[in-house]
């Protein structure tokens, strides 16, 4: 895909200091290209380190191939970079390890995350992979909010949690699928028990 | 008629459940990302999530929740306070069905002690745990596993000693009101958490005039076992005249004794060349005996700051 046709993230140019006005090009695993400001990239520890290590000049950015991000698709990456552009220049929160954590979801983020669960799941993965602390916070907060204040029965519905019995049955089924003989042995054992025998020998 | 009503109620409950937003990808998240979500939940939701399955219990148990304060009162009520990351306080209370019995609160209390960090654990007006409670609790919370930083008991009794035994060795402060029970020191000194606590405060407002001899084995222990600098005993309601017993006991170690602004001070040597013990008999609203391990370089002019 050419740069002209690539989905370009909206950039508030007035908010960017003149000397920082450099845009890097990134490519998703489905070959969609994005231009992202240097300041926005700073929200991602992974990308920030990457571009620092590459030491690109403005010419390099234009002339060299876009930086490939192998693990993330275009739809997710677009959300990630929209978030980074909106929050560029903001301080990155430092985790003091305390639990519980209070995270407010700003209006912009709430709208950005008005997406289906599949995409939200990918967004969480991407935020973690790219080490974008606050995006990980708000996206996980959205998942936490679904559980907040629910009873155990409701929680089972929210996260589709299997009960212990269902979990064990699933494990047994998986084991049997790996070793079909296991089921036969078990059936044989049950049959012998019914017939009064208590041993295979 | 009742059957119809029941069916209708069940249907309504089901419709309510169906309307709840779902996140069916939960099980696909790796543990560390699940924990990122879980650390944003309040305590009650965490507790409920822990009750859904063994898998979720194991997840919740792998991340310690921070309590500011947990108070066990009347033998059957738990009041818990925690701060969120904005330092805003949240409090909840829960009490047992049976007065003076912990019964169904035991799993909750055990979870708090075993799997949470507690800055302050208070035991107020407690009653001895019955044997059934003890048996259950001992299985759930082994000795030395409760992450409590400061333990306060408004009375010295078996329950206070029991919970102290459950504490880990990184207790900062133990504060116990004796209420006439001065023979407890021998028991306390056998508890590892007590031995490791940096500060021990005690008072006996019911029968003031406590003899300083009760504390001598503790100080002797500091001298012999190289107690860290900063280790401190504050005993209120003591009899100041009993300082002679203190002097008699440690007469061969006295480096300095005399009056300073705040009271009478005695400085002792220890088995460690760089550590001394500073003891003071101070009269405030009551008579207080201070004793602390100091650096051997400590100046006379600094004594005041240690005795308050």
TrEMBL record, chain A:
Annotated TM spans: none
Listed Pfam families: Skp1, Skp1_POZ
Tell me the ranges covered by the SKP1 component dimerisation domain, including all copies.
Answer: 134-178
Keyword Phosphoprotein applies: no
What GO terms in the biological process aspect are recorded for it? protein ubiquitination; ubiquitin-dependent protein catabolic process
Domain SKP1 component POZ: from-to ranges: 26-88
Q: Which domain of life is it from?
A: Eukaryota
Give the Basic and acidic residues compositional bias ranges: 169-194
Q: Which InterPro entries match?
A: SKP1, SKP1-like, SKP1-like_dim_sf, SKP1/BTB/POZ_sf, Skp1_comp_dimer, Skp1_comp_POZ
What is the name of the protein in this document?
A: Skp1-related protein
TrEMBL record, chain B:
Output the Pfam families linked to this UniProt entry: F-box (PF00646)
Alphabetized SMART domains for the sequence: FBOX
Domain F-box, chain residue ranges per copy: 29-69
Q: Which domain of life is it from?
A: Eukaryota
InterPro entries membership:
F-box_dom, She-1-like
Q: Which PANTHER family match?
A: F-BOX DOMAIN-CONTAINING PROTEIN-RELATED (PTHR31006:SF3), F-BOX DOMAIN-CONTAINING PROTEIN-RELATED-RELATED (PTHR31006)
Name the record gives this protein:
F-box domain-containing protein
């Amino acid at each position: 895909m050419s740069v002209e046709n690539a989905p370009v993230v909206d950039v508030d140019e007035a908010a960017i200091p003149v000397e920082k006005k450099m845009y890097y090009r990134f490519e998703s695993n489905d070959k969609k290209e994005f231009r992202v400001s240097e300041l926005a990239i700073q929200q991602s520890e992974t990308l920030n380190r990457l571009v620092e290590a590459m030491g690109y000049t403005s010419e390099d950015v234009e002339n060299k191939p876009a930086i490939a991000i192998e693990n993330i698709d275009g739809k997710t990456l677009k959300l990630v970079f929209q978030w980074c552009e909106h929050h560029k220049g903001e301080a990155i929160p430092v985790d003091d390890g305390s639990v519980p954590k209070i995270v407010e979801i700003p209006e912009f983020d709430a709208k950005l995350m008005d997406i289906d669960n599949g995409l939200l799941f990918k967004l969480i993965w991407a935020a973690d992979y790219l080490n974008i602390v606050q995006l990980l916070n708000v996206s996980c907060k959205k998942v936490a909010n679904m559980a907040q204040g629910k009873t155990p029965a409701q929680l089972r519905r929210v996260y589709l949690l299997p009960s212990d019995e269902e979990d064990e049955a699933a494990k047994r089924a998986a084991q049997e699928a790996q070793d079909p003989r296991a089921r036969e042995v078990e059936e044989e054992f049950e049959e012998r028990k019914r017939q009064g025998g208590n041993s295979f020998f | 008629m009742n059957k119809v009503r029941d069916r209708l109620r069940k249907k309504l409950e089901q419709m309510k459940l169906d309307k709840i937003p779902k996140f069916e990808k939960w099980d696909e998240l790796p543990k560390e990302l699940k924990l990122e979500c879980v650390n944003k939940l309040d305590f009650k939701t965490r507790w409920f999530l822990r009750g859904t399955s063994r898998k979720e219990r194991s997840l919740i148990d792998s991340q310690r929740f921070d309590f500011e304060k947990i108070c066990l009162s009347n033998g059957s009520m738990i009041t818990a306070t925690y701060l969120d990351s904005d330092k805003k306080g949240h409090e909840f209370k829960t009490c047992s069905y049976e007065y003076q019995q912990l019964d169904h609160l035991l799993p909750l209390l055990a979870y708090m002690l075993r799997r949470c960090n507690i800055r302050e654990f208070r035991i107020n007006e407690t009653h001895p745990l019955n044997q059934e409670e003890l048996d259950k609790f001992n299985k759930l919370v082994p000795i030395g596993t409760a992450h409590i930083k400061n333990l306060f008991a408004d009375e010295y009794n078996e329950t206070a000693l029991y919970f102290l035994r459950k504490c880990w060795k990184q207790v900062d402060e133990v504060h116990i009101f004796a209420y006439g029970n001065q023979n407890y020191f021998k028991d306390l000194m056998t508890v590892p958490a007590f031995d490791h606590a940096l500060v021990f405060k005690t008072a006996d407002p019911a029968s003031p005039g406590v003899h300083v001899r009760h504390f001598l084995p503790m100080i002797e222990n500091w001298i012999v076992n190289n107690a860290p600098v900063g280790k401190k005993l504050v005993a209120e309601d003591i009899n100041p005249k009993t300082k002679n017993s203190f002097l008699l006991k440690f007469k061969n170690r006295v480096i300095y004794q005399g009056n300073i602004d705040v009271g009478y001070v005695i400085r002792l040597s220890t088995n460690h060349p760089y550590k001394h013990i500073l003891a003071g008999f101070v009269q405030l609203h009551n008579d207080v005996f201070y004793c602390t391990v100091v650096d051997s370089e400590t100046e006379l002019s600094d004594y005041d700051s240690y005795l308050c």
